User: Fold this.
Amino acid sequence: MLILYFLLSLLGLVVGSFLTMLSYRLPRGLSILGRSVCPLCHKQISWYQNIPVFYFILSGGKCGFCKEAISLRYPLVEIITALFFLISAYLWGLSGSNLVVVWNALLGNMSLPFFFLLTIFFLLLTIIDFEFQILPDKILFLLMLLTTLVLLLSPSPTVLFNLFVGFSVFIFFLAIYLLTQKRGMGFGDVKMSFILSSLLGFPNILIWLFLSFLSGAVVGLFLIAIKKASFGKSIPFGPFLLISAWITFFFGDMILGWYLVYN
Assistant:
């Protein structure tokens, strides 16, 4: 088991390195093909300089050419991705949530790798929205295809009901978007709400919505308190939607159960 977790952590670091490249190039309209270069001196980066985390440590966090400091963004994304892989694998083995049970029944041994793929999309969108406050349509479209594949593997009544749930949440988010005159959230959040709610289904969307708006409000007030944000100034809402969806996947049933017991 320890060997499995070690290999998963290495895989997570490699995927994280790939995500740093995608999240840097895609919002800037750059090609995802070709070797990476230092953003400061524009020298082409060697293969060994792309070794996740380890090269950052060995180089003292500096570029091997210009000796300028390498942004902490790169090792942080790699480490966070590895942690999400490890935590997902651990929770997958422990969790008895309805969604995990359903995915195991539908996909068998491919259920966890499929969830890793979903997590990769969540992390990529979170990074881009956090840095640029956009949710690229190309990535949302691919996430939609992934969600559709899961739904098509589900029993027919589940597909129709989940699509109805997704459309209902989409209308709810669209109303917020229009009533706040685009200040409450971006249209990318509205489109993503359909994808995530269709994936989670009912009643999990209730927990997801609660966690999303609660975490968004708490972080927003905290940023205002430390003067990193102000009232009327928008902060990206996508990361809260995505992280809350990931949490709901594993703990939605548990949280709902607690609520029903104590209310």
Summary: The mean pLDDT is 85. The chain has two domains: 1-72, 95-262.
